[in-house]
Specification:
Length: 218
Amino acid sequence: MPQALGLLLFTIGAPIGVVNAVAIGFGATLVNAAIGIGLSYVASLLAPKPEAPKPSDGKTNIAEPTAPRVRHYGQVRAGGVIAIIEPSNGKLHKMVVTGTDEVKAIVGIYIDDIAVTLDGSGQVNEWKERGENAANRLIVKTRLGLPTETAYSELVSAFPGKWTTAHRGDNVTSALMILNTGKPEDFSKQFPSGANTTISLIYQSSIVWDPRLGAYNA
């Protein structure tokens, strides 16, 4: 490229000094650019890599096909691993596995780091005011991780054949969110995090054997 530019200047009658200066300067620029790119690449290799979020961080929902099962003790706040995230009939269904084995009670729910409450049908009260047609705007269902659990009927209905009553999730604590916008164009307003909307649970966790009582206790 420097030679081509020099030939062009030479052809149009530029002085030899200008031709050489341009050719040399352009070549030096390419060398400097190459050195800069190389140094940037080396720096990126040496820089510490950010750690991927883990379910045990307490707030995150991650997509990980081979994630370890996590057992919690005491009262904890737990995020989890996404088991399914699929749209159906204008609603986004997102189920998150938060832990292994039965817990005593769920005492708190967070959506996108916001503490929320549910009405009797599982609707999130804090989302009812977000836009028109607020009925069923955001629904949350949970499971305590019983030895024999019950499949989420909402998933069975939304994904017949793909999610069945056999998908019970025995000994798995979980939460299901159903995001309903009403209008597609309102989705980002009602759910600023979109499909990345997260859920985490606060619960009194794993029930363990208490030798003093001769029984299982939280």
